[in-house]
């Protein structure tokens, strides 16, 4: 694992590094703390040891639960996966319409998987008949009780890892609020070359300001070690099917999801509003984004930029369409069947 990490970090890159120079007077942005008694290790071997430690390793029971989750997914080269519920049903129709028009004609031997995390029976039936995809009801009853709090997003790393178990080449996670440009194959080519494509933007808020202290405690890290790193967005991610990506990125992310103290260390009183700038760290929490950000930053430290998607802030591959709806698309599809 260490040799693979070193090799990845020695590859040539077309991405430019970003040096953080701001002090931490404005705690919202990525900044350089004056002191940090336990910074992230610059030693690749130490970082791999940390990533492979028991706290970030799935138990056999965890692993079997994900295997069962993957059991009905068809084996494919590329798997696009998302999840939806009744309150995002019309956005999902918009997203599926875009996939049918842009992605399906270009990406060969692919499967689109939708995990149902709260559709009505009527919505589920219509989706199954119209989406040209594979619909799976997420079995919340088989997982710890806190999984039923859908807003904790504990299901997200599990559906990605379950999809990876049936993928020959890539898994692409996407939220329902995005639409693809015709550059989708370019992004998959980057994922093939690099192993990972992340949505990282230099102007995004830093990790500790939008991550509760409980996650740092679980990971065994000091928040100050992450102040100069922006948080990764998880609305779109490309993972290549490699032993390194599965074991060093997906498994730690999934393991954190199984642990309430890691992924969801909050009560209803804790703030989940991460859109308003904060004046202190730990003022809100981004769940799956916080966990993934910490894991990939712990792994790659200041070389993380290599795995950021280029032009993501200029809609090079996708456009974010929050609130875009296509409430009649499935009905229109079914009229032609």
TrEMBL record:
PANTHER family assigned to the protein according to its UniProt record, in alphabetical order: LD39211P
Phylogenetic lineage: Eukaryota, Metazoa, Spiralia, Lophotrochozoa, Mollusca
Record-given protein name: Uncharacterized protein LOC106066910 isoform X3
Annotated gene: LOC106066910
């Amino acid at each position: 694992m260490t040799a693979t990490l070193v090799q990845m970090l020695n590859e040539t890159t077309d991405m430019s590094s970003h040096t953080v120079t701001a002090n931490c007077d404005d705690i919202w942005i990525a900044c350089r703390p004056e002191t940090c008694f336990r910074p992230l290790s610059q030693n690749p071997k130490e970082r791999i040891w940390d990533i492979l430690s028991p706290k970030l390793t799935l138990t056999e029971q965890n692993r079997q639960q994900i295997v069962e989750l993957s059991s009905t997914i068809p084996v494919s080269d590329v798997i696009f996966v998302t999840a939806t519920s009744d309150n995002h049903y019309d956005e999902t129709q918009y997203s599926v319409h875009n996939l049918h028009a842009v992605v399906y004609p270009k990406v060969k031997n692919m499967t689109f998987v939708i995990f149902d995390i709260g559709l009505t029976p009527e919505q589920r039936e219509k989706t199954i008949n119209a989406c040209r995809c594979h619909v799976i009801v997420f079995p919340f009853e088989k997982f710890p009780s806190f999984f039923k709090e859908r807003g904790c997003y504990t299901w997200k790393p599990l559906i990605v890892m379950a999809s990876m178990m049936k993928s020959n080449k890539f898994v692409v996670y996407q939220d329902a609020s995005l639409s693809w440009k015709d550059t989708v194959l370019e992004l998959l080519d980057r994922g093939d070359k690099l192993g990972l494509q992340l949505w990282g933007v230099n102007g995004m808020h830093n990790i500790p300001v939008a991550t509760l202290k409980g996650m740092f405690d679980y990971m065994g890290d000091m928040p100050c070690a992450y102040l100069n790193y922006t948080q990764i967005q998880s609305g779109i991610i490309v993972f290549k099917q490699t032993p390194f990506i599965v074991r060093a990125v997906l498994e730690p992310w999934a393991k954190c999801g199984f642990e309430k103290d890691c992924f969801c260390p909050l009560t209803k009183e804790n703030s989940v509003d991460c859109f308003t700038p904060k004046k202190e760290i730990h003022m809100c929490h981004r769940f799956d984004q916080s966990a993934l950000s910490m894991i990939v930053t712990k792994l790659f430290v200041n070389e993380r930029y290599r795995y950021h998607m280029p032009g993501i802030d200029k809609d090079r591959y996708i456009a974010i369409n929050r609130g875009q709806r296509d409430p009649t698309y499935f009905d229109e599809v079914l009229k032609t069947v």
